[in-house]
Amino acid sequence: MRRFTERLDMTPIGPEHAEQLWLLHQDPEVAHWADPLSPDEARAVAARMSEGWRVEGVHKWIAHDRATGELVGRGGLSWTEVAGAPVLEVGWVVRRALWGCGYATEIGAESLRFAADALGAARVVAFTEVHNTRSRAVMERLGMVYTREIRRPGLIAGKEGVHDDAPFALYAADLRPGAG
């Protein structure tokens, strides 16, 4: 389900996008939050996302600038679990050179429209490590509301490596008509 915004061409990620995912995750600032990927890992991630589109009708898009064709990032929706319950999560990754240009917000907003219009979703969540203020600001620009702290594997400010019990800020968007 390809989507277009004012500036972006967003194509469902498939195996043909593995090299672009690999390139995106080679950016040190991206890799800090979204993990670096080897070429083999990028192929596996692209295949998993493609399968999500095929089986669940939803997953991430690869995003390109409509005017230039330049790779901007990736983002969209996927199913995950929070507190043992399945939830639809919105997320994004944008190349560091393009941070501050509104692309993450644009990807997130289109993802929420897709969730409401195409999927009929009533609620979507987003979460990030509590110290990831840039992603939290995007969530707030999208109208998402902080609901609580959750724990999952991730980064802890001032500590090296991934920790099993890192604090994450959980946000939610109520997509029901008239909500918000």
Automatic annotation (TrEMBL):
SUPFAM superfamilies: Acyl-CoA N-acyltransferases (Nat) (SSF55729). GO terms for molecular function: acyltransferase activity, transferring groups other than amino-acyl groups. The keyword Transferase applies. Residues 8-177 form the N-acetyltransferase domain. Pfam families: Acetyltransf_3. Keywords: Transferase. This is RimJ/RimL family protein N-acetyltransferase.
